[in-house]
Amino acid sequence: MKNASNYLDAVLSMEDDAITIINQHKEVIFWNEAAVQTYNIKESDIIQEQITNFFHDDDLMVLKVLDTKKPVQGTYHRPRKDKHVVVNASPIFTTNNELIGSISVERDITQIVKLNDNLLTTSTELNELRQKVYTDTEENPFSRLKGNSLPLQQTIQLARKAAKTDATTLVLGESGTGKEIVARAIHEASPRKEGPFIPVNCGAIPEALFESELFGYEGGAFTGAERKGKTGKIEMANGGTLFLDEVAELPLDMQVKLLRVLQESIIYKVGSSSGKPINVRFIAATNQNLEQQMVEKQFRSDLFYRLNVIQLTMPPLRQRLNDVPELAKLFLKQFSVQYEVPMPTLEKDAVEALFQYQWPGNVRELRNLIERVIILSEESVIKKQDLLSFFHSSSAPSNLAETANNHSLVQEKEAMEKKRIEEALEQHNGNKTAAANQLGISRVTLYSKLRKYRI
């Protein structure tokens, strides 16, 4: 029996976890080397001593199980202010079920906790630094609208002015022209930049859910409603900006309620008779002709005029073809990093093909095309024929080939003339007199050509 005890002592001494055994009188009868290392208390100093001489009663799990006679498993514990452990502890009974002591096995996780604390601190500092870097490098939120073409720069100039006010803004433009990007830029360049920017796609909300989504509802307002109620998108944007994308899709009854919010700055939740004041800046966007919809009684004229305090029109890509090479290069770099592949270059004839296409899907279509090129192409240099194979439109490749092969001399001359006029206007910041002098034509002739080329 004595040998068995020696064997057991040897096994317990080899454990990496601190092991403590006390008797029913709270005296320490076993203290292994791991316990010595964990608590810096020599075995000779603690054996046969009251464990409470070295630790506070409340800090000892081994005492707790001695009192409760119930084991604990995998419990986080702090026996000292400077120690963090995961402890398993159990009472010890004789074969006659007599309590004679308790044992605890404690795994020291102090370094792990400290590392985790440092990680949390570092993460917080990193987030603060990231925000500072973002603020420093993104002083101009409109820098995300890439391109130097005159139509885009004119829109950006107007958007900058809109950002300085709380005026309701209506952003018009074809699908894929960047309406949400300019809306976000207006918000981030405005005094409301610290507040939320809440986008709502009006075309993606079922008609029956519009009111609860926009205005929220009180608890139990209708069958299936959450008991605590729900906060609507308008209230979520309080102190910031609400972006209503595809606003032409709003049902007529919701147009009336939105108009009331714009007029009174008060919202009424579904199921509530009391209004709540809100402080929200509204930006709406659509690719539809709202004036035509007003004629057809599809869109309320009073709401249109409320939304149309400042109107921005995002130019389609075909009106800013000079920006295509810059955008293409940007997307090549972006997707080569995302998909971890070498960045290819565009051959001159491929760039010319991009110029010749009309881009009905606008910047979004160009972006998707470049993403397909990065994913599917294995060439380091993208030539025109390579590029044509990645167009989804069945007519695009043939149109481009036909344009490249059969471009008439008149069309080439007009394209070049339009490009020269745009460049001259850009160089002189839109000054038409200076641009006409540079081009060697009169202002009357310049205005005529501006109308002709819809510049």
UniProtKB/TrEMBL annotation:
Residues 145-375 form the Sigma-54 factor interaction domain. It holds the Pfam family Sigma54_activat. Keywords: ATP-binding, DNA-binding, Nucleotide-binding, Transcription, Transcription regulation. Signal peptide: none annotated. Residues 4-59 form the PAS domain. InterPro entries: AAA+_ATPase, AAA_lid_NorR, Homeodomain-like_sf, HTH_Fis, P-loop_NTPase, PAS, PAS-like_dom_sf, Sigma_54_int. NCBIfam families: sensory_box. This is PAS domain S-box-containing protein. It comes from Virgibacillus natechei.
